[in-house]
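Risk register update: the risk of archive-format incompatibility is retired. Evidence:
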Amino acid sequence: MTKDKQTHRSRFHKAKDDAQFAQQATSTPQTASEAYKLAFQDTDFLLREDLRPVRFQLELLKPELLLDEAKIESTLVIYGSARIPEPDQADGLEAAATDDASRNIARRLKAKARYYDEARKLARLASQVPVDANGDRNFVVCSGGGPSIMEAANRGAADEGRESIGLNIVLPHEQAPNRYVTPSLSFQFHYFALRKMHFLLRARAVAVFPGGFGTFDEMFELLTLIQTGKIKPIPIVLFGKQFWNRVVDFEALVEEGVISARDLKLFTFVEHAEEAWAVIQSFYANADHH
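Archived output:
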């Protein structure tokens, strides 16, 4: 910004100042009316149906500006279930089961508890990437901010003493971000669409752990965006080949003609954090040679 522009703008009070002045207005029937409120201080006005485009813009802008200010250049996004237990708590699930069906589910979740540790390890590896010459940070861990696999991701970054991002969503039942998310990088969204956009705006790699509808939604949208050329390819690692091939018959999709064989190369199956990190490093090492 030029000096002339700075001088010109300094002639006006900042919005923050006027907001404070407005709170001190003399009480009259006119100032007491909702109509007299500054538009950006009028919550009821901002929540009107007509203001949805403005709320969209705000949910796009707020995290974008704060992440820019935090000098976060790129992220490692980790998707996964909110139900897979931490290994130390896995036995408790089976003990709490009350019938054969719930015991079977508990055993399956217990078998997947190791992915909590793998997500934590992968986050630790990514968090060891040093700050670049410009002071920007790359491969900053980003999760949905919730429990289980998401918690493991943020926890791994915390193990290394590094910041991590949590993109939470307002849900009807009470919830809060996991305690390992960096408070200044903990964001809450109303719109799923804007949350999903922020997952990918800075994503340099994505790791997908076993999960349910939410994980499927995020993973398949990413695959579709790359398949259709809407975004450039990035490394996508799917943890647990046995799980994914049991719940999604990828080969059948090819055989049915609804995807091509080359689409199966958009992702790589892995089992361990070190293997996943090697895939990500190899992707960018090869990209640098082209």
